[in-house]
Design brief:
Elements lengths: L1 H14 L10 E2 L16 E2 L2 E2 L1 E2 L2 E4 L2 E4 L5 H23 L4 H16 L3 H4 L5 H18 L6 H18 L26 H4 L2 H7 L1 H13 L1
Parallel strand pairs: 1-4
Antiparallel strand pairs: 2-3, 5-6
Helix pairs in contact: 2-3, 2-5, 3-5, 6-9
C-alpha cells in the first residue's frame, strides 16, 4: 500500500509541476503487529531510495518507531534548561517577580508544553519527573509557585475537547456520545494501554467535558 501511495504522490507532483525533495523524505515504520522482524521493501521515488529512520521530527515533535516519547522529552528538557540560565541572569538584575514569571511562560513553559496533548499522556514517570525538575528549578529562581505540567495538560485537554464538542462539523465530534444517564460519555474501546492514555479516551472520561457538553446543549 505504501508503494502505491508513493506512486500517487509522485504523479500528483508531476501533474502540478512540483519538485519532490527525496533527500528530505524519510520512512518511519511503526508496526506492533508481531514480535518477529519483517523485511520491508524500501520505497523508491524518482529512482532514489527513501531513507529509513528510527525517529523523525515533525512539527517540532520527535516521533519514534516505538511511539515512546523519551527522545522528544529529553530534547525538550535540554532546550528548556538552556533557558534557565537567562532566567537566573534576569533575577540577578533584580527584576520584579511578575517579569520573571512572564519570561518563564514565554521562553520555558512554552517549550515544555509544546504539543503536550500529543505526548504527555503516554510519557513515563521518569520523563515526567525530568520535566518537573525544570519547573522546580524555575520556581526556586523566581521564588514563586508555578503551574505543574499535569494541571496544564488537564486544562488543555478540557479546552480542546470542549472545542470539539462545540463544533458539530468536527470529524471527531461523534466520539463524544452521551450515555442514557446523561452523566458520562460512551467510553471508547481501547485494547492497549497506549491508546487508553491518549487524548480522546482521557477527554471522554473527564467529567468537566461532560458538564461543558450539557452547558453547550443548554445554550443551543
Amino acid at each position: 500500500i505504501w508503494h502505491v501511495v508513493c506512486e500517487k504522490i509522485v504523479a500528483l507532483c508531476q501533474r502540478n509541476n512540483l519538485l519532490l525533495n527525496v533527500s528530505k523524505t524519510k520512512e518511519l515504520i511503526v508496526d506492533f503487529s508481531t514480535k518477529q522482524e519483517r523485511n520491508y521493501q524500501t520505497p523508491v521515488i524518482n529512482e532514489c531510495p527513501v531513507e529509513r529512520v528510527d525517529s523523525f521530527k515533525y512539527l517540532g515533535v520527535h516521533i519514534t518507531q516505538d511511539l515512546s516519547w523519551s527522545c522528544h522529552i529529553n530534547t525538550v528538557v535540554k532546550k528548556a534548561r538552556q533557558r534557565l540560565y537567562h532566567l537566573r541572569r534576569l533575577r540577578d538584575f533584580q527584576l520584579p517577580s511578575k517579569v520573571l514569571r512572564n519570561f518563564y511562560s514565554c521562553t520555558i513553559e512554552s517549550i515544555l508544553t509544546g504539543n503536550i496533548l500529543t505526548w504527555f499522556g503516554n510519557s513515563t514517570m521518569q520523563d515526567r519527573r525530568a520535566l518537573q525538575r525544570v519547573v522546580r528549578s524555575a520556581e526556586r529562581t523566581i521564588r514563586s509557585e508555578l503551574p505543574d505540567l499535569h494541571s496544564i495538560y488537564s486544562r488543555r485537554c478540557w479546552t480542546k475537547a470542549r472545542k470539539i464538542v462545540k463544533d458539530l462539523s468536527h470529524p471527531n465530534n461523534r466520539l463524544f456520545s452521551l450515555l442514557r444517564s446523561g452523566k458520562r460519555f460512551r467510553s471508547l474501546k481501547t485494547n492497549t494501554e497506549r491508546l487508553r492514555r491518549s487524548f480522546f479516551p482521557q477527554a471522554i472520561r473527564s467529567r468537566a467535558v461532560v458538564q461543558a457538553f450539557h452547558y453547550i446543549s443548554y445554550c443551543v
